[in-house]
Amino acid sequence: MTAPAPTGPAAPTGPQRFGVFLAPFHPVGQNPTLALHRDLDLLVHLDALGFDEAWIGEHHSAGFEIIASPEVFIAVAAERTRHLRLGTGVSSLPYHHPLMLADRMVLLDHLTRGRVMLGVGPGALPSDAHMMGIEVARQRDMMEEALEAVLLLLRTEEPVTMKTDWFELRDARLQLRPHQRELEVAVAAMVSPSGPRAAGRFGCSLLSLGATQAAGFDALGYHWGVMEERAARYGTAADRDRWRLVGPVHLAETREQAARDVAFGLADWIGYFRNVAALPIAPDTDDPERLVEAVNSTGLGVIGTPDDAVAQIRRLADQSGGFGTYLLMAHEWADTTATRRSYELFARHVAPVFQGTARTLAASRDWAAANRPRFIGAATDAIMAKVQQQAEESGR
C-alpha cells in the first residue's frame, strides 16, 4: 500500500501546547511569603499534570503582582520541576541594561539545561515606570531599541557597539554563549501594534496577553497581519506555531460549582484591574453577582466546565486564524483546592481535544465494540476447542 504524499506543514488551527501565565495576582492583606510559595507549588502541580510551559511576570508596584525578578523565581522553580519550560513573562526591557539582561538569561539557560525562554515587553504598570523616571510615552521605543541589542548579543559572537539616549554598548559580547541552539524570544502584545511590529521585525515569537479582552480579541487578526507584513519587509519568519494567546479560566464539574468557587476571589481580581492597574480588562459591572455572567458573556474568560473551555479556545482559533500555545492566566479566583482541581480538569479533558491524544483511544474503543461479536465468538470457539481437546485426551 502506498503511503499518502506529504502535504507540507499546515498552520495550527487549535493549540498543541498549553501553559500558564503567572503574573501573579495576590490581593493585598495576605502573607506574601505564603503566596509566593503557593505559586511555586502551583508550577510543581502543573509540571506533574503535563503542562508545557510557564511564564513569570516582572512588576515593582501596585501590591498584587509581587514577583520583582522572574529570573530568580525561575531559578527556584526549575529546581522543583522536571519538564516545564520557563519564560520571563515578561522582562520589561526599559528597566534593564541589555547586556545585563542577556547575560542573566544565558546563565539561567545553562542552569536549567535549556528550559528557559525570554519574554519581553515595554512594562505594563505606569507606576513602575514612574518610580524609575521613565516616560510612559517612551517605553515602546525603548523596548524595541533594547530588543535589538539583546538579540544581537544572543545571536552573534561579534562585538556589539550601539548607543542610544539611555544605554550604550561598547565592543560588548557574551562570554558565555546560550545553552540552547536558539533561545526563544517572545514579544508581548496587548492592543497596540508595537508588539507584533517588533516581533515581525526581529523574527521573534508573539505573546498576546490581551487576547480575550474585547479590544485584544478584535485585534488578533490585525496583529498577525502586522507580523506577516513586517516579517516580509525584514526577511524574517512569522510562525503561527510560536504564537501564544493568554486568557483566564476556572473550571469545575458544573457551571454552578464553578460560579460558587470564584466567589472566593474574582471580585478582588476585577477590582485590581478596575481601580489600580488601569488596564482595560475588567468587565463593565460592579455587581458581584453579575461578575461571572460578565466574564463569560464578554469572552474575557471561562467560568464553567471543560466543554466551555474548549468552546473558548475554538473561538480564539477562529478569530486569530490559528496559534500554537494557549496560556491560562493564573489567578486565585478560587481557593487552592478548587484552583488545582481546575487545572486538573483542563489537563484531563480540554488539552486532549486539541492534541488529539484521546481521539485514537476513542476510535480504538469504538472499533473493538463494533466488532465485539466477532471477537467474542472467535475467543469462545478457541476456548471450547481446548475444552473438547482436553476431554478427548482424558477419555471422557
Description:
Helix 3 (98-111) packs across helix 5 (139-155), helix 6 packs parallel to helix 8 and helix 12 (306-320) packs across helix 13. This protein has an 8-stranded parallel β-barrel with strand order 1-2-3-4-7-8-9-12, surrounded by 5 helices. Strands 5-6 form a two-stranded antiparallel ribbon. Residues 1-11 have low confidence and may be disordered. It is globular, with a radius of gyration of 25 Å. Helix 1 links the parallel strand 1 (17-22) and strand 2 (53-56). The protein has 396 residues and is α/β, with parallel strands linked by helices. It has helices spanning 32-49, 70-80, 98-111, 126-131, 139-155, 194-202, 214-218, 220-234, 255-261, 266-275, 291-297, 306-320, 336-355, 359-370, 372-394, and strands spanning 17-22, 53-56, 85-92, 116-121, 160-163, 168-172, 185-189, 205-208, 243-247, 249-251, 302-304, 325-329.
Outline the secondary-structure elements.
Elements: E1 17-22, H1 32-49, E2 53-56, H2 70-80, E3 85-92, H3 98-111, E4 116-121, H4 126-131, H5 139-155, E5 160-163, E6 168-172, E7 185-189, H6 194-202, E8 205-208, H7 214-218, H8 220-234, E9 243-247, E10 249-251, H9 255-261, H10 266-275, H11 291-297, E11 302-304, H12 306-320, E12 325-329, H13 336-355, H14 359-370, H15 372-394
Parallel strand pairs: 1-2, 1-12, 2-3, 3-4, 4-7, 7-8, 8-9, 9-12, 10-11
Antiparallel strand pairs: 5-6
